From TrEMBL:
The keyword Protease does not apply. This is MmcQ/YjbR family DNA-binding protein. Keywords: DNA-binding. Transmembrane segments: none annotated. GO terms for molecular function: DNA binding. It holds the Pfam family YjbR. It comes from Siccibacter turicensis.
Length: 117
């Protein structure tokens, strides 16, 4: 999977916006101004950082060499995944969906209603 393919998938989420974090050379994707994905390169490989529960993060890291703690984000809640690794595209899409939903669920009711409406 490429940066542009995963970015397109992220940007199709309701309310998704993107900006560039120039210091990190990363594209940040947010909903209601809350980060849910960050697309960047890690060790010269395309990658995405996504929010997960600590339990899911630990499980993914134990089972997949291409999933590891995010260097610049809270390591308990954020995992980075190489896009060109062994993880199937369907699993990458699932992780994007889960990260987005986790952020949406944490938003105030009024913000969630705006996304739905």
């Amino acid at each position: 999977m490429t940066h542009s393919e995963i970015l397109q998938y992220c940007m199709n989420k309701a309310g998704a916006t993107q900006d560039v974090h120039s210091d990190w050379k990363a594209t940040q994707i947010k909903v209601a101004d809350v980060l849910f994905a960050m697309v960047h390169d890690v060790d010269d490989r395309p990658a995405i950082s996504l929010k997960t529960s600590p339990a899911l993060a630990e499980l993914l890291r134990d089972e997949h060499d291409d999933v590891f703690p995010s260097a610049r984000l809270n390591k308990a809640h954020w995992s980075t995944v190489h896009l060109d690794g062994a993880l199937p595209d369907s699993q990458l899409y699932f992780l994007v969906d889960a990260s987005y939903q986790q952020v949406v669920d944490s938003l105030p009711e009024s913000a969630r209603q705006q996304l739905a409406g």
